[in-house]
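Because discrete structure vocabularies remain unfamiliar, it helps to consider an illustrative case, giving the amino acid sequence and backbone structure tokens:
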Amino acid sequence: MDITAIITKSIAEIPPDEPRQYIGASSIGNDCSRAIWYSYVGADREEFPARLRTTFEIGKRLETLPLDYLEKAGFRIVRPAEDNDWLFFHDADILFFQGHADGLLLLENQSPAIVEIKTAKNSSFMTFKNKGLKVWSSTYYSQIQSYMGMSGYPRAVLIALNKDTSEFHHEWVEYDDIFYHEMKMRALSIGSTSKPPDKINRSPLYFICKRCSYKATCHG
């Protein structure tokens, strides 16, 4: 019996995620506006291979660990659940600009803090640790600012787990209203057009285009 083949087949048979009918906080920092638009309108995309889908699933499961440890340390955590609408937030003016936070940290005599959790291989993790969130990932920075802007909570913490060494690192982030306004205006611009925005590059071999799941739709 080929157990590996059975597992791989089982992964391949998992139905793909339903297309998002909104512009997500997790995608608004994407360098390519056209890719964000394709996601919003439900354009055809390449499905992830079984191995990559497993990688994503491992990341999702590992992301609950920091919340477990914080609770064991005595902190009060709000996790996504049905009774809190899975920590769903949206912009007050642009209803299709939405997102779901990983958690809320309840602090004494303070507003709740948004919790965002990421996993990373060692090389990526060390960039975060040594150079900070903005240098590490403008996408993650945009995501966490968007959650703060949507929720009204002025503080957040991003916790990263090194998948190679099991090390944790975190960074506190203060809300930047000017930055969030730029993100919501970008969401409005992308979501209000019936035509795809300009390509980020004309070549499908461009490094961003090569790894984009919409490259076949975009480049033909």
Observations:
- The chain has a mean pLDDT of 94.
- The longest helix spans residues 177-191.
- The chain is about 40% helix and 20% strand.
